Amino acid sequence: MWDYSEKVMDHYRNPRNVGTLEDADLIGEAGSLACGDSLKLFIKLDGDRVIDAKFQTFGCGSAVAASSILTEMIIGKTLDEVKTITNKDIANELGGLPAQKMHCSVMGREALEDALKKYYGENSEEWKELELEIHSHDHPGNKIVCTCFNVSENQIWEAIKVNGLTTVEEVTNYTKAGGACGRCKGIIKDIIETYLKKNKNEEKIELTPTQKILKIGKVIEQQISPQLQKDGGDIELVDIEGNIVKVKLIGVCSGCKNASMTLKNFVEAELKEKIDNKIIVEQV
Amino acid sequence: MIYLDNNATTKIDNIVLEEMMPFLTNEYANASSMYEFARKPSNALKTARAQVQDFLGAKDEKEIFFTSCGSESANMAIKGVVNCNKEKRHLITTKIEHPCVLNVYKEFEQQGYEIDYIGVNSEGELLIDELKEKLRKETALVSIMWANNETGVINPVEEIADIIKTRSPETKFFVDGVQAGGKIKINAKDTLIDMIGISGHKLHAPKGIGALYVKSGTRITPLINGGHQERGLRAGTENVPYIVGLGKACELASDALDFELKEVKRLRDKLEQGILKNVFNARLNSNSLNRVPNTTNIGFQYVEGELILLHLSDLGICASSGSACTSGSLEPSHVLRAMGVPFTALHGSIRFSLSRFTTEKEIDFVIENLPKIMDKLTKLSPYQKELELLKNK
Questions:
Q1: Is A140 on the interface with B (CB under 8 A)?
Q2: Spatial CA neighbour of B192 closest among B210, B171, B211
Q3: Do A36 and B314 touch (CB under 8 A)?
Q4: What was the pLDDT predicted at A139?
Q5: Neighbouring C-alpha atoms within 13 Å toward the C-beta of B10
Q6: Among residues B171, B110, B123, B119, which one has the least CA distance to residue B150?
């Protein structure tokens, strides 16, 4: 028995916008009959605004609900707005989906992407730019990882990235990959590890000076300060010069004889790990 | 509510419950105790064992062992035989067994045992020639279900027992009888079957009780070690109220067998024909003549099974599906796949399983409403062209 939200139940009982659009400007498809669910999405534009959308779905209750709500979500929006909709947005709009049903929201997102790709043309500048924007140039490739459900590296990468997945089981819930014979589970694990490694490095390398300043502030405020507050102290960010972060310890910390240790072993270590290895913390 | 999922579980017969009640309340003595207070539970245990013996057609009451469920019976039989025959490294079963058999076999496979899985034809009937081919002297055990839970197809296990014992007399034969009990006549003493497992909750006893028939002279090791209960083969204080329930349920099932074979079958056939006639995308997954009287499995092409179940449920109709989505496993039923059910129908397969409590009115309601549901759901399908072709056929 699935724990479906009221909204999911409402949408599979009374699906909105079922059918086809004869004069659709965009048509997107995802899934297949053999795999157990598939979706066809029809979109009508006025300029760059979606004025109508219809769908046909072969699938379970949550697949129908995800397709149905997706049509509601895109009607009235511009293509620029539509292209930012993620599978997470679809699931959230439904009031959540059971973990093992998240792949239904992913199917919605994939149909949307397929529609955009066909609309712009696979080789068009618009699509390439959009793909770059969506996938931020970090995707491994279109090689099929799961042959049972025909899931590519890109799709797995995307699901990991958008939903913050960390285990093979989660990837299976979101993309179905690994859900049948299970032979690709090792590859999925490698993709997760590659992503996590890459993601960690990129975050450290890619920050602009402003981003770095903002991030240092955020880490101090959200992660370091609450820890010190637990001990009755606190920390205040005074200034940042290059990699030198100047702080002031307050409360009980200010008079603590372990203050310099706290600074080196906790504050500086934390900032080094989360932002940049070169950071040095100084007390003012 | 219309309950057509009796292969999943059944309601407890009121007569069974009544029989159990004293042992859930006042008569709580341990059946093995030596005082007068234990006499009633002790006698009740004997009666129940005789009832199950009678139900299975066993020669001796000593051949009946009470367990906690069908899965335990299967585990006890399979592991019990394999542990007693460690020099034999070959095992046989079928592709359509219940997980309680398949997963035990998988475990032995991982331990290095050689396993052969016998296939079925498109009607779900066992390919007995394959069995003949694979069977050899080193085969420790063959496990074959009497009736399949999804299709209801009956395997000719009596005949298979003869084949096994003629070709390899030392090979043991376990029959998972969980779906056959109460639906066909079982007469263990007239067969060469070594072990038969049954489960209480499939025949109107409560969940949590099962039994294993072990033919005299068949050596197995216990699954649960401990006290002397069940002649040392299954330790644990006897679950008297549930054993009493199983005994009574077996007696009632024996009495109701004729009704099952005539009346339940009539309603099943009516449901089956009604659906096939009124729903254009319906396809009978097994038309085997050799099916238990209560089961039908119908594939609704180009519509997904969970969605059908959810809409049936909205009308109070309970059935089950071989679709991937209902199990959470992503893969559709291993039984329907072994039969080679086309994937147009595979994901939309629904099993209806009746009981002696199913009424004609209920069947009529389903026959009347299913076409309406399917009318709505086929409209959702992206395969309109294919559906159109089916309609015009």
A1: no
A2: B171
A3: no
A4: 66
A5: 28
A6: B123
A182 and B CB contact within 8 Å: no
Q: Which residues of A touch B324 (CB under 8 A)?
A: 36
CATH superfamily of A209-283: Fe-S cluster assembly (FSCA) (3.30.300.130)
Q: What is the mean pLDDT of residues A25-54?
A: 94
What residues of chain B lie within 8 A of the CB of A64, using their CB? 307, 380
Least confident among A45-54, A142-151, B175-184, B302-311 = A142-151
Is A59's CB within 8 Å of B304's CB? Answer: yes
What is the CATH architecture of B257-392?
Answer: Alpha-Beta Complex (3.90)
**Is the minimum CB–CB distance between A173 and chain B shorter than 8 Å?**
no
Of A19, A39, A60, the CB nearest to B307: A60
CATH topology of domain A144-206: Arc Repressor Mutant, subunit A (1.10.10)
Sign of the four-CA dihedral A22, A28, A32, A35: negative
pLDDT in the model for residue A203: 58
What lies within 8 Å, CB to CB, of A50 at 6+ separation is: A43, A44, A74, A75, A76, A77, A78, A79, A82
For residue B305, give the chain A residue with the closest CA.
A60
Cα separation, B100 vs A80, in Å, equals 53
Is there a contact between B304 and A36 if contact means CB atoms under 8 Å apart? yes
Give mean pLDDT in consecutive 10-residue pieces for chain B, a chain of 393 residues: 97 98 97 96 98 98 98 98 96 97 96 97 97 97 98 98 97 98 97 98 98 97 94 96 98 97 98 97 96 97 96 97 69 93 94 98 98 97 95 87
For chain A, give every residue range classified as CATH 3.30.300.130: 209-283
Residues B47/B54, Cβ–Cβ less than 8 Å: no
Q: What is the pLDDT of residues A239-249, one digit of tens each?
A: 888 888 888 88
The ipTM is: 0.91
- Higher pLDDT: B92 or A177? It is B92
Residue owning tokens 């534009």? A45
- What does the pLDDT read at residue A135? 64
Nearest to A56 among B306, B325, B382 (CB): B382
Token pair 């079982």 is found at B186
B299 to chain A, minimum CA–CA distance in Å?
13
Residues of A marked active site are found at 35, 104
E-state strands within B54-192: 64-67, 90-94, 114-118, 139-145, 172-176
CATH number of B13-253: 3.40.640.10
pLDDT digits (tens, 9 = 90+) for A204-219: 566 788 888 888 888 8
Domain boundaries, chain B: 13-253, 257-392
CATH topology of domain A6-135: Sufe protein. Chain: A (3.90.1010)
- Residue range(s) of every CATH 3.90.1010.10 domain in chain A: 6-135
Q: Which of residues 54-113 of A touch B (CB under 8 A)?
A: 56-61, 63-64, 100-101
